[in-house]
Amino acid sequence: MKKEDVTETQEEVFFPSPEIVEKALVKDYETLYRKSIENREQFWADEADKLDWFRKWDKVLDDSNKPFYQWYTGGKFNIVANAVDRHVKTWRRNKLALVWEGEPGDTKTYSYHALNREVCKFATVLKSMGVKKGEIVTIYMPQIPELPIAMLACAKLGAAHSVVYGGFSVEALATRIRDANSRVVITADGGYRRGKVVDLKGIVNEALIGAPTVEVCITIRRTGHAVAMESDRDFWFHDLMGLPIATTSCETEVMDAEDPLFILYTSGTTGQPKGLVHTHAGYAVYAATTLQYVFDLREEDRYWCTADPGWITGHSYLVYGPLLLGSTIMMYEGAPNHPYPNRWWQMIEKYGVTILYTSPTGIRGLMRFGEQWPKRHNLSWLRLLGSVGEPINPEAWRWYHRVIGGGRCPIMDTWWQTETGGFVITPLPITPLKPGSATRPFFGHEIAIVDDDGKELPVGQEGNLVLKAPWPGMARTIHGDPDRFKQTYWRQYEKQGWYKAGDSARKDKDGYFWVIGRTDDVIKVSGHRLGTAEIESALVSHPDVAEAAVIGLPHEVKGQAIYCFVILKHGKSGSKELEDKLKIHMDHQLGAIARPEKIDFLDTLPKTRSGKIMRRVLKARALGQDVGDISTLEE
Ligand code: WTA
Q1: N or C: which end of the chain has fewer CB within 10 A?
Q2: Mean pLDDT of the chain, nearest integer
Q3: Residue 414 CB–ligand 1 contact under 6 Å
Q4: CA 457–ligand 1 middle distance (angstroms)
Q5: If pLDDT is split at 50, 70 and 90, which confidence band does 461 have?
Q6: Is the CB–ligand 1 distance for residue 503 below 6 Å?
Q7: SS (H, E, C) 220-254
């Protein structure tokens, strides 16, 4: 897009300053994009070449068993050899890997040397517990340094990790441990959130009653509050790390390129969360490449991704991506507005953060306190900003750009998913930006907006977002359910071989993509991905509830908020008191992130003749809109 085109249409476009263009890693998107499409495998081979391999691959892409694509087959690789081991062999040994601040204000820093030492020690501890290649270790922790250390220690040994977000509660955790069949769980006694202690170990203890496969639970002491430890199952992390067996050197396991690195559960249309499987090599190449090009990481950067490692953003762009690139990462344990709404801005100033990657909810949540809070701080170190998780409304975009970025920092609005492993639609620092658009495809991607039959839609028309070609960071399958993987993502456009993202979007005349939102029963609450079905089954598990339907409605800060419609069992009646009780029940089952905004008690739910709840009707009614075509409604 050229400047001249824009003045004509009066569109709001932000062009990069000459200084940004001059220093940019990629100055010409079009040329490199074209190359990456014309010779996709060569592009991904060149990128893979930038990492260390025990043995190089035989084949870049094996597509003989679609949609179960394989990348870098024959290659021998371990992500830890690249994220940690290779850095300690260079001057980076003395570079800061991690700068951490706890919510109460305590701090810790790790050089790459120290990170390697802790990872080795914890890996030897896990090894002594019998942890090995092929098993899945569940990690349930607050945002403390031991969380990435635990992830890396598992990966070093070749065990896959399954990080469950610390904001989830008993039933959500138990379901995920059961599905992963974990023998070992790593947790902490608790964490801090808004000055309060979250009793994680208590939640784990309850969850383990329903997860009998767990033989070992290792607990990090964070808060020091009293927790129940069962003698033969439970171990304190610090006890184990103090044992002579916890040595500072530990072999990094040689893995096949396609061996699983982690599974990460995400929500879909049914109540059972999907454990998406990501691999060592393809995922590493993708995380490193996308981060390098989009955030243009430089040796002197201090990079802060505010996401929790319990979500994919934390996996790819807090832990693995930046460590693969040998960067200095920032990590913060607690709430953005604790004890005051300047907490984030204060830390950006204090640590000299140069790149901030966060969510629209994070921005909106702090924006409402007014610009006097960031204005108190010197944010001049910042040079790039990022946004992820949900569409960013132009008002929040402009505030972020002007107040936080001082008008000089481009915003990388990155569209991607747990399934994609990394950025898919994203600007580069040189890309002219339109507030609210994630702009254009990343290298190697061909993206289209199509109708239900796969016909490409004209400019401006809303339709299904599809990815036409495979990429190294793509999820390989759903743990234990390859059929569901096929059904969910590949079935609808099987003939064409396209990946269906589950989002609706449109494309404008400049080839910019505008993502509108999910087309399935997934809602994004504060950028957190939740399934209506999982929330409904949590509601129905309450003894007074007969049936429930859940929808997402627009919310000023959270993007979307949870609205529940409940039919009570015979003889029960709805009241404010019961609504509160149900909310507490939801906190316990799923976690406070799934707490409903409102619960309405109804006598009937709108259903189709085949018995499917018509959430569309509930939504329209709640928004005071026309309910549309209801010819399939039961009555
Ligand atoms: C939404 C998070 C608009 C989208 C990385 C997607 C976005 C879902 C953006 C995946 C963005 C993510 N603009 N929408 N920049 N980024 N989404 O798996 O609906 O938690 O399908 O991955 O978030 O959510 P997930």
Answers
A1: C
A2: 95
A3: yes
A4: 22
A5: very high
A6: yes
A7: ECCCCCCCCCCCCCEEEHHHHHCCCCCCCCCCCCC
Give the C-alpha separation, 163 to 166, whole Å: 9
Q: Which residue has the higher pLDDT, 627 or 309?
A: 309
Q: For 244-271, what is each residue's pLDDT tens digit?
A: 999 999 999 999 999 999 999 998 777 7
Return the amino acid letter for 506.
R
Residues contacting 399, CB < 8 A, separation 6+: 363, 367, 371
- Span 158-177, mean pLDDT? 96
On the question of pLDDT at 6 being above 80, the answer is no
pTM exceeds 0.85, yes or no = yes
Q: Given the structure tokens 């040397």, which residue do they identify?
A: 113
* Residue with CA at minimum distance from ligand 1 atom 7: 390
Measured in Å, residue 51 CA sits from the centre of ligand 1 at: 28
Distance 373 CA to ligand 1 centre (A): 28
Question: What's the rounded Cα separation, in Å, for the pair 505 and 447?
Answer: 11
pLDDT at 272: 85
- Compute the 3-state secondary structure of the chain and give helix, strand, coil in percent, each to the nearest 5: 30, 25, 45
Q: Residue 227 corresponds to which tokens in the numbers above?
A: 């927790």
Residue 252's Cα: distance from chain center in Å?
26
Looking from the CA of residue 387, the nearest atom of ligand 1 is 15
Coil, strand or helix: which one is 548? strand
CA distance 142 to 147: 7
Mean pLDDT of the region 60-79? 98
Q: Would you state the torsion angle of the CA atoms of residues 243, 248, 249, 255, taken in this order, to the nearest 10 degrees?
A: 80
Cβ–ligand 1 distance for 420 under 6 Å, the answer: no
